[in-house]
Specification:
Elements (H helix, E strand, L loop, with lengths): L1 H17 L3 H47 L5 E2 L17 E4 L8 H4 L4 E7 L4 E5 L10 H9 L4 E7 L4 E10 L5 E10 L1 H51 L13 H51 L5 H32 L6 E4 H12 L6 E5 L2 E5 L2 H17 L7 E8 L2 E8 L21 H6 L6 H11 L3 E7 L3 E9 L6 E3 L2
Parallel strand pairs: 2-6, 9-11
Antiparallel strand pairs: 1-2, 3-4, 3-7, 5-6, 6-7, 8-10, 10-15, 11-12, 12-14, 13-14
Helix pairs in contact: 2-5, 5-6, 6-7, 7-11, 9-11
C-alpha cells in the first residue's frame, strides 16, 4: 500500500509538471478576458471622444460660416438618412458670392479659425486667421470640388506642431455657377491635449481595474476550483483504500452535484468491497469446515490401517458427504458469479414443461407438496436459472415444513406479468432476520441449515436471477405459521409472457 501511494504521488507530480492546474488556467483566462474587455472599452471610448471633438470642431466652423457669410447660406438638400445624431452637420450648404465679391472676411476669420478662398482657376484670393504657421494647402481637394459633384469636403491638414481639421465648401454666383471654393480650418491641439489626458486617465483607471479584475478572477477561480481540488484529494484517499472519505458539499451547483454523486459512488464502492471481503471470508469459512472433516478422515484412514470395517465405512461416508457439500457450495458460488456477470439475451421457456419435471421429481418424496400451474410460455434471461430459483424456494420450504404442514407452488399470469409463489406452513422466519435472508451465506437457523446441507446461498441465487430479469422477490413470514415467497417478473418491451391455449 505504501509503494502504491508513493507511485500515485509520483504520477501526480509528473502530471502537475506537465499540465497547468485548472485554477491557474481559469485565473489566466479571466484576466485575459478582463484585459481584452478593458482594452476594447478604453479604445472605443477614446475614439468616441475623438469623434465627438471632431464633430464639435466642424459644428463650430459651420456656425462661424452661418453667422458671418452674407447672404446667409442655405441648405442645398435635406439631410441624408444615415447622417447620425446631428443631421444638420451633414447637410450641404449653398453659398452665394455677391456680384461685388465683398464679404466679411475679417469677421469670418479669427485667431483660431483659418479662412482661405480660391477662385475657379485655383488662385488664392483670401488667406486670413489662424496662427502664424498655417497648415499645408491641399489643392487636390480644392480641384476635386471645383470639377466634381460634391458640394463640400472634410479632410485633415497639419503644420509642424498640430493637426488641423479642414472644411471646404463650393461657392456659386447669383446665376448658380461655381466660382470658387471657401476653405475653413481649425487646429486640433486643444482636442489632442484633451485626448492625451483622457488616454492617460484611461490607462491609470484601466490598470487599477485590471488589478481588481485579477483579484476577482483569482477569487472566482478559488471558489470554483477549491471544491474540485477537495474532491481530488478525497479520490486519492479512496484510491489508497480509505472508503470512509467523503467530499464536502461546497461551491456552485455543479460542484455540489459532483460531490453528492462522488459520495454516493464511494458508498456503493464501499459496499461492494465490503461485500466481496465478507463473501471471501464466508466462503473460506464455509469451505474450511468440510475440508477439515475430510482431512481428519483421510489422516484417520492413513494412520490406522487396521481399523474396523464399520468405522472405515463411516469415514468414507463422512468424506463423501463433505465432498458433496463442497461441490454444492462451489456450484452455488459459480452460479452466483454467472448471474452477476450475465449479459444474456431473453430466451423462450415453457414453464409448463419445467413444472411437470419438478412435480415428477418432488412428488414421490414429498406427498405434502402441491403444485399448480397454467400452460405458460415466457421469454426470460437465463431460463435454466428459473428452474434453479424454483428448486431453491421449494427446498427451503420443504426443509422447514414437516407433515401435516403443506407446501404449495403456483405459477400464473397476473397484472401483465408472471407470478411464481411458494408458500409453506413451516416454522417461519423471525421478523429481524427477514430483511437479511437474501444475503450471501446468511442463515436464519444456522444449525438446521448446516444439518440440511444448505450453503446459505439459495435465496441469494434466487434474488440475483430475479434482478437479472428486472423482477422483484417478496418474502412474507410469521413464526409458527409459515412463509410465502413471491417472484414477480414484469412483461417488458422485447419480452413476451403468454398463456398457451
Amino acid at each position: 500500500m505504501i509503494v502504491t501511494s508513493r507511485l500515485r504521488e509520483v504520477d501526480t507530480v509528473e502530471l502537475r509538471k506537465k499540465y497547468p492546474s485548472t485554477r491557474r488556467l481559469l485565473t489566466l483566462w479571466n484576466v485575459l478576458l478582463i484585459g481584452f474587455l478593458l482594452f476594447c472599452l478604453s479604445l472605443g471610448l477614446y475614439f468616441q471622444i475623438q469623434k465627438d471633438l471632431d464633430r464639435r470642431t466642424f459644428a463650430q466652423l459651420r456656425f462661424q460660416l452661418m453667422e458671418h457669410w452674407d447672404p446667409a447660406p442655405l441648405q442645398a438638400a435635406p439631410p441624408p438618412r444615415d447622417s447620425g445624431p446631428d443631421p444638420m452637420l451633414h447637410t450641404p450648404l449653398h453659398l452665394v458670392m455677391p456680384s461685388d465679391r465683398q464679404q466679411k472676411w475679417s469677421e469670418l476669420a479669427s485667431a483660431f479659425v483659418l479662412v482661405r478662398y480660391y477662385q475657379a482657376d485655383l488662385k488664392k484670393l483670401v488667406d486670413m486667421g489662424g496662427p502664424r504657421e498655417q497648415p499645408d494647402e491641399h489643392l487636390d481637394e480644392i480641384r476635386s470640388l471645383l470639377s466634381g459633384n460634391r458640394e463640400d469636403a472634410k479632410y485633415e491638414a497639419s503644420n509642424s506642431f498640430e493637426h488641423w481639421l479642414m472644411w471646404a465648401q463650393r461657392v456659386r454666383d447669383e446665376q448658380g455657377r461655381v466660382v470658387g471654393v471657401l476653405e475653413l480650418g481649425m487646429g486640433s491641439k486643444p482636442a489632442d491635449d484633451l485626448l492625451g489626458d483622457v488616454a492617460g486617465s484611461l490607462g491609470i483607471f484601466g490598470t487599477l481595474a485590471l488589478l481588481v479584475g485579477v483579484l476577482l478572477a483569482a477569487a472566482l477561480a478559488r471558489y470554483v476550483c477549491s471544491p474540485l481540488e477537495s474532491i481530488v484529494k478525497k479520490m486519492q484517499r479512496v484510491s489508497a483504500g480509505d472508503f470512509q472519505a467523503r467530499a464536502e458539499r461546497q461551491g456552485p451547483f455543479e460542484m455540489q452535484s459532483i460531490a453528492v454523486n462522488f459520495n454516493r459512488m464511494v458508498a456503493e464502492l464501499s459496499q461492494v468491497f465490503e461485500s466481496q471481503r465478507r463473501f471471501v471470508a464466508d466462503a473460506s469459512h464455509e469451505l474450511k469446515t468440510p475440508l477439515t472433516s475430510i482431512q481428519t478422515m483421510v489422516e484417520l484412514l492413513r494412520d490406522y490401517q487396521h481399523i474396523p470395517g464399520d468405522r472405515r465405512e463411516r469415514a468414507f461416508h463422512v468424506i463423501e458427504r463433505e465432498l458433496a457439500r463442497v461441490n454444492n457450495l462451489v456450484h452455488d458460488m459459480l452460479t452466483l458469479y454467472r448471474l452477476d456477470e450475465s449479459k444474456l439475451q431473453p430466451e423462450q421457456l415453457d414453464l409448463g414443461e419445467v413444472l411437470s419435471e419438478l412435480a415428477a421429481a418432488y412428488h414421490p418424496l414429498h406427498d405434502h407438496l402441491d403444485i399448480h400451474w397454467e400452460p405458460i410460455r415466457a421469454e426470460l434471461v437465463d431460463p435454466a436459472g428459473c428452474e434453479r430459483a424454483v428448486r431453491n424456494l421449494l427446498d427451503n420450504a420443504l426443509a422447514h415444513t414437516t407433515p401435516p404442514g403443506r407446501v404449495s407452488l403456483s405459477v400464473r399470469l397476473q397484472s401483465g406479468g408472471l407470478v411464481i409463489e411458494v408458500s409453506d406452513q413451516g416454522t417461519g422466519i423471525p421478523p429481524e432476520d427477514l430483511p437479511r435472508v437474501t444475503r450471501r451465506f446468511y442463515r436464519s437457523d444456522l444449525s438446521r441449515s448446516r444439518r440440511s446441507g444448505g450453503s446459505g446461498l439459495g435465496l441469494s441465487i434466487v434474488q440475483s436471477w430475479v434482478e437479472s430479469n428486472d423482477g422483484r422477490l417478496e418474502l412474507e413470514s410469521e413464526l409458527g405459521k409459515g412463509t410465502l415467497a413471491r417472484i414477480w417478473l414484469p412483461q417488458v418491451e422485447g419480452r413476451k409472457t403468454s398463456q398457451l391455449d
